[in-house]
Amino acid sequence: METPKHHIFVCASFRTDGEAKGMCAKKGSSAFLPYIENEILDRGIDAQITAAGCMKMCDNGPVMVIYPENVWYGGVETEDAVDEIMDALEDGNTADAYRLNP
Asked: DSSP string covering 17-65, please?
């Protein structure tokens, strides 16, 4: 199996004991995982999605990071936000309205 071109991490606020706490979990970030997975498949984007432990960016949650680009997104609270980020990824751009890092 080849490695994917992109790896998308979504903060699910897991702590070391496995319990989901924090802003991302409270704002339902885990509920977006199936939606993002379907978007990846529907668009034919070569990507893998992973639910991640706390990314320590609670003030900006829910948080999503795309590698290898190292692009951090915050405030990913709606399907529209996910769509905008996926559109940008598909086009080789970034969704600046949600981008956290320069």
From this structure: TS-B-HHHHHTTGGGHHHHHHHHHHHHT--EEEEEEE--S-GGG-S-EE
Domain count, the chain: 1
CATH number at residue 69: 3.40.30.10
Is residue 23 within 8 A of residue 59, CB to CB? The reply is yes
CA distance 44 to 63: 23
pTM, two decimal places: 0.90
Phi, psi of 14, rounded to the nearest 5 degrees: -65, 135
Print the domain residue range for 44.
6-91
Instruction: Name the strands in the sheet holding 71-73, side by side, starting at the edge strand that comes first in the sequence.
Output: 47-53, 6-14, 64-67, 71-73
Q: What is the pLDDT of residues 29-51, one digit of tens each?
A: 888 899 999 999 999 999 999 99
